[in-house]
Amino acid sequence: MRGLLHGESGLQARLGDEIIYKSLIFGDDIHEIHGEDLFRGKLGLTDYQFSEIQIVLESESTDSDGHTTKTKIQAFKGIVFVADFHKNFNGMTVLSSKNAISRSLAGRLAGRLLRPLVFRLTLSKSDRARKEIKLESDAFNEAFNTRTSDEIEARYILTSSMMERILAFRDRSKGRIEISFVDSCMYIAIASGKNYFETDVKNPVDGPKLEELYNDLTFFFGLIEGFDLNTRIWNKD
Q1: Which contiguous run of DSSP H or E holds residue 49?
Q2: Alpha-carbon distances, residue 165 vs 62, 68, 170 (angstroms)
Q3: Max CA-CA distance within the chain?
Q4: Is the dihedral of CA 168, 40, 88, 96 positive or negative?
């Protein structure tokens, strides 16, 4: 694929910790970050990178006898995709699906029992993107909580066309999604239990596996066209 660069550190490479924290999607109390299958490159005018990511939290509880127990919780497993948004903005805007599980430990543990992929709602305690706004699309408002540090800028980013694209992507993707716009980049987190891009380098890739790998890559590269990221609406300074 033209413009594609697989992670320079091999299949075990992943997005850096600073990117995960900078996205504002996962909060600051992350205990461990794991991942693999880093892809980086440029498609058209858009620089991109994405990899599989696992986010692990650690909770601590003390019983009536004073015994402390630490529990690790997988809060997220899926793909984190980062693309140059080609719009010169300085604010921070975060979209969170409205069916997010509570931030509380009880909510996280209940979510762990009810479903393996727990996506934490971290936005309510973010000092950097704390103002909740309603947009012109009722369908979008029903699907996402929108929080921002700059309401005017958020409305410039989230045009009617962009909101339609985000809703279409949500319907097309089978996992839960969270999106943020920070430092002129678009961050997309897609929760999924699937192991993407899995191949055995010691053996030939058979037809079905090759087709699955092709479909995975086509889906993620399609984000650039799907969100029209190659169209420079605002030029960067």
Answers
A1: strand 46-62
A2: 46, 47, 9
A3: 62
A4: positive
CA distance 43 to 119: 29
Of residues 116, 100, 102, 99, the one with CA closest to residue 192:
116
Closest CA to 50 of 72, 89, 20: 20
Tokens of 210: 């090759």
Tokens encoding 74 = 């997988």
Q: What is the dihedral of CA 78, 118, 62, 33, to 10 degrees?
A: 20
Question: Tens of pLDDT along 79-131?
Answer: 999 998 666 777 899 999 986 543 334 344 434 433 333 344 343 334 567 89
pTM exceeds 0.70 for this model: yes
